Every structure is written in structure tokens, then in C-alpha cells.
Amino acid sequence: MSSAESLDFVDLPKGSGAGVAPISNTQQSSIPTATANGSSLIFDPSTTIRATSHPLVALFHVLFKVLSLLFYLFSSFITSNFVFTFVLSVLLLSADFWVVKNVSGRRLVGLRWWSSVLDDGSTTWVFESSPNSASHTAADRNVFWTALYLAPACWSGLLLLDLVRLKLSYALVPVVALAMSAANITGFTRCSKDQKARINEFVTTGIGRVMGNEGIRNTIVGWVAGGGNTGGYANVNDQL
Amino acid sequence: MDGAIDTTPSTLDEPISETIMRDLRQVSSKLRVVLIPSKKNTISSRYDHEEVLKQLKDWDLWGPLLVCLLLSIFLSVDAGSQGALVFSAVFLVVWSGAAIVTINAQLLGGTISFFQSVCVLGYCVFPLTVVAGVLLIVHTFLKSLIFDSIFVALAFIWSTRASVVFIGQFISEERKVLAVFPVFFFYVFLSWMILI
Q: Name one GO cellular component term (chain A) (predicted).
């Protein structure tokens, strides 16, 4: 498809501006994201990222996810060397994991998790959340949680694709991606202290707001994330 | 992923560079510890021994990932036409092997934590990785099975000893052999993969 077409596609009037998409507009049409079925969703990534309280952190939070997905998808055009693809993908995924766990979790939503080993050899997991939640805006939470759930959704799709095409060596990459995403999702979801409150509010108010872009995205991703596990989703009331 | 014993809540606010440096320092110090395992016998090295144990208690999986990637790369470059297959095979073997050995140790009633054990086993593959790299260079001008075997055997003894010292801590005496045997087997398998 020509770049002119994809530019036209994106030039439509922008919506309420929330949501996460690839940074560069020209890349948007080539990403098989889970929200692609909602063609009414018009993302304005630059506004969203700039609306967060830590734009650079939010950028990196999304950047490595997008880079790893893109690289893996287009690796066959870049190189025929499997090892190079694998290593670079895994490095990008590791970078993403590290950024999410150590940086964006802290800065965007004030959550941190780790494990420590006691003397008797058992492992305890520590979940820490910052009491200073006023500094974390709704945009922060939006970007953080959406990207966190969206990326593994894409990787699951890619895994299925690889299995169906019987490219089992390549399938290792989505497996690694999913393992790392699962770790982060589990850690951060358990961190999120008002998880139950958000579930309640999502159930009561989220369905009533399906008409808006926010509602569609939240509903879709809520469904993807498996119903009750909406974790730290932006409280729709914050949008008011 | 790391199991650093973070007791201070202020890590929530530390600068990013500090976090990076901390992780890097952890990985490099653990690599050093694995390369120079200390004996239990002498009195002076008993302190080193405690130090070693404490080091390895703060598990992290970055080191094993790095070591595993390196080993896979070295072996796949050396394999030529079957590079891709070798790469995936080695990667899978390292991680599943570590997991299986760990589960075995746990089932034998060891008090070791899953991630700690995977971490130690992963780090202890490092000597084998070093030798694989050396052999890669050597193979450009010399391809002798005997020569290879000597190096690999050295690395194998090195790796096995390093990991046995650690795993042995957590298993009771009579079951030690049962727990150690899979470790032994794991490294034999990896050494064999380097040789072929």
C-alpha cells in the first residue's frame, strides 16, 4: 500500500485522543493490533504521550514493544538469518521488560514489584505502590496498562501464526515475549491497589460508555484481558 | 527479572541510571563468582563460601539469558548450514534443562527456590560458553576432536563444580547424589552439544 494512502487514513479528525498506537503515523496501518477491528478508533499518539506526566518514559514504554513487534514482523524483509532475528528480538523484548518493570511502572503508575528469597529458601513476592498517586494522571495509566495488555495480545496472534505455518524455531520468539509479558502483567496487576474498585466501576459505568472511543477501547481490551482482571485500567470517571 | 533484596522503599524513586548500574554490577559480580568458586575445605575460604552463597541468593535471570544467548550464537555460527536449528536447540535445552534440574532438586525435598536454582545453573553455563567461544576461534585454523575435548572437559568440570557447590547446600546428604546427578547430566549434554 502506498504511503499516501496510509497518510490519508490517519488524517481523519482526531478523537478524544486517548489510547496507544505506534509513534509514527505511517506505520499505523501495517500493525495487526487487537484494536484494528475497531476502525472507528482514531488514535493520536503524540497527544496522548505528551499528555502523560512523564512523556519520555511513556515513549520508551511503548517504543520497545512496538520495535520488537515490528522487527519480528518484518524480519524476513531485513535478513534471512534466523539467529540475528531471534537475538535482536529477544534483546528488544528484554529491554522492554526491563523498562516496564524498573522505569515505567514506577514513573507512570507508581507501582513496583520484585521477589526476595528468605533464608529458608522460599520466595516471597513484594508488591509496592506509591502513596503519591496524585502525580499519576489518567493518561499515564491509559498508556501504561493499554500497552501492557496490547503487546501480549499481538504476540499471541503471532505465535498462532507461527505455529500454523509450522515455523517452530521462529515461534520461540513469541513464546519468550509472552513469558516476559506475563511476568510483568502478573506483577503489576497484583500491585494495583484499587483493582477491585476499578472492576466495580468498570462494570457499572463502562458498559454505559460504550459509545465513546474510550468505552470501545476499554471494553475490547477488558474482554481481551479476561473480564474481571481489568487491573489498573483508567477509571472512566477520571475522564470527566 | 531479579530477586534483589530491596529493603528500602526509596528504590521507587531512585534515578534510572542507578537502577541500570545496579543490575549490571549484579550480573558481572555473579559471573565472577561463578568463575572462581571457592572450596569448602579451608578455613579462610569458608568466609568466601558464605559470600558466594549470599551473592547467588540474589537471583536474576539476565545473566542466564545473556549466557544462553552467547552459547547459542557461538554454537550456531560454528554449525554452519544448520545454524538456525542448533541455535533454537541450544536455547531450549539450556532453559528446559535448568528448569527440569531445578524441579528435580525441589522434588527431592530441597529448600532451594526455583528461580535461584535456575539462576545458578544458568550462570554456571558460563565456563562452557567461554570455551565454546574459544573453540569458535580455534576452529578457523585447527579442527581436532582431541583438542576440543580437552577444553570442553575442563569447562565441564569447572561448571559442574561451581553449580554442585551451590546446589549441594540445600539438599540433605543422602540425597545429594540424586540431586547432583541431573546437574551432571545437564552439563554433559551441553558439553556434547559443543563437541559435535
A: Golgi membrane
